[in-house]
Amino acid sequence: MAILNKYRKIQEELGIVGESEQIRELIELIISIAPTNISVLITGESGTGKEVFAKAVHQLSPRKNKNLISVNCGAIPEGLLESELFGHEKGAFTGAVASKKGYFELADEGTILLDEIGEMSLQTQVKLLRVLETGEFMRVGSGDLKKVNVRVIAATNRDLGRMVRKQEFRKDLYYRLKAVAMHIPPLRERKVDIPALITAFVEELKQNEKLEIAGFTDEALQMLYNYSWPGNVREVRNFVETSLVLARGQRVTAEMAREHLNIYEEPVEVSTALPMPIGRSVEEAERELIYKALVSLGMELKETKAAVLQLSERMNGQYRNDDGIVYTPYESLNSNDEIRTLDELEREMIEKALDKFRGNRRQVAKALNISERTLYRKIKEYGLE
Q1: Beta bridge partners of 115
Q2: C-alpha span between 181 and 159 (Å, rounded)
Q3: How many separate domains does the chain show?
Q4: Maximum separation of any 2 CA atoms in the chain, in Å
Q5: Contacts 24+ apart (CB under 8 A), 216-219
Q6: How much is the pLDDT for 93?
Q7: Residues 303 and 242 reside in one and the same domain
Q8: Nearest-5° Cα angle at 241, 245 to 215
Q9: pLDDT tens readout for residues 97-139
């Protein structure tokens, strides 16, 4: 009993929620490896909580009073990642008006978490390998070696072994990182943790928000237990917060829960970082990013106009064949019919779709055959929020 109580106390201190055997084994592994300086590779699907386990390793280590620096390698443009990791000297590139420390210097004597390590370029991987092996690196634009003492934890939702075989990730770095491999199983493989996670997020919401919260009905809880949770722990948190806030003090029923789960069904990972070529100045890279954003915006506008035109034609009993020719299978429009602009038709179609799907924007976007991003912008533009 004393060992079990000690185990639960450590689990609470680490902020890890779960009653499954998988969680117990992960905590035992963390307790074993935390006192060392060995590198750790954490793998698992998006939303499984890899950063929570990385923080747990740091929290139980002798470095716990030093910095834990978390870096999302996938969110930093490729051309800037090296500078962010290792720093740069004044004048190293356009815009470098002063010398700057990188994340490795800031994490000296502490821990650095390299999240989404699979997004790192091969060129930057070479320099990371050198830091792992020697503790040495050079700032961008400098020839002077700097030395740091940093523990490296890497995390990814990608199959690095497969990337190594395809020569998309360095083999030597892969084996250096996975001195200890920690895999976080998806929530569908440890359903016993679902009730504990829901309870934890409900209590967290009660503490953080001054709201009346009644919780879930038994039928709703049973349905949540049987749900596959493709977005894992992150999806559970988002669902609990959204459903309870919108319930306004009522208990969330199975029907209400089912409606909210449709919003989070089949989550899509969207990277907000556009790729940036190496070897270009910051100004050139920024111009290219702006150009790509404008091209993307133009494609969305074209997509929206085409969808609205198609819907307006169908409203008038018209159809468009494969050659792009519009025809009316029934009687023609009366010459006295009111002519309306595309913007008016677009607003009406979006408004009707929002009403039909009770504000479910994912379903509205799917029905209108446009992206959710475009729909959100149009809703704001037409004041339909």
Answers
A1: 72, 155
A2: 13
A3: 3
A4: 87
A5: 216/251, 216/252, 216/257, 217/251, 217/252, 217/253, 217/254, 219/253, 219/254
A6: 83
A7: no
A8: 70
A9: 899 999 999 999 999 999 999 999 999 999 999 999 999 999 9
CA neighbor of 343 nearest in space, from 284, 372, 384, 373: 384
**% residues pLDDT > 90 (the chain):** 56
Same domain, 71 and 154: yes
Give residue for tokens 């029934």: 330
pLDDT at 149 over 90: yes
Report which DSSP code applies to 277: -
Give the rounded distance of the alpha carbon of 369 from its chain centre. Answer: 24
Domain that holds residue 314: 282-381
The kind and range of the H/E element at 153 are: strand 151-156
Q: Please state the separation of Cα 245 from the chain's center in Å.
A: 22
Which residue type, as a one-letter code, is found at position 151?
R
Q: Does some domain include residue 60?
A: yes
Residue 365, SS3? helix
Mean pLDDT of 202-211: 88
| Residue from 27, 25, 53 nearest 41 by CA | 53
Same domain, 147 and 212: no
Cα 160 to chain centroid, rounded: 19
Burial of 303 (0-12, 13-18, 19+ CB in 10 A): middle
- Which token pair is 359? 């504000």
Residue 264 CB neighbour total at 10 angstroms: 18
Scanning 254-327, the segments in alpha helix (DSSP H) are: 254-264, 282-315
Residue 40 tokens, joined: 């750790």
- The count of C-alpha atoms lying within 13 angstroms of the C-alpha of 359, restricted to the half-sphere facing its C-beta, is 5
Whose CA is closest to 354, among 330, 320, 324, 378? Answer: 378
Query: Quick one: which of 17, 77, 379, 47 has its CA closest to 198?
Result: 17
* Same-domain status, 168 and 193: no
What are the two backbone dihedrals, phi and then psi, of residue 240, each rounded to the nearest 5 degrees?
-60, -45
- Residue 102 lies inside a defined structural domain of this protein: yes
> 218-226 and 254-264 are packed helices; what angle lies between their axes, rounded to 10 degrees?
30
Q: What is the pLDDT of residue 48?
A: 96
Give the whole-angstrom CA distance, residue 92 versus residue 84: 13
Q: Are 16 and 52 in contact (CB under 8 A)?
A: yes
Instruction: Examine residue 68 and state whether it is found in any structural domain, yes or no.
Output: yes
Same-domain pairing of 178 and 305: no
- Looking at the structure, do residues 19 and 125 belong to the same domain, yes or no? yes
CA dihedral 116→119→121→122, nearest 10 degrees, is 80
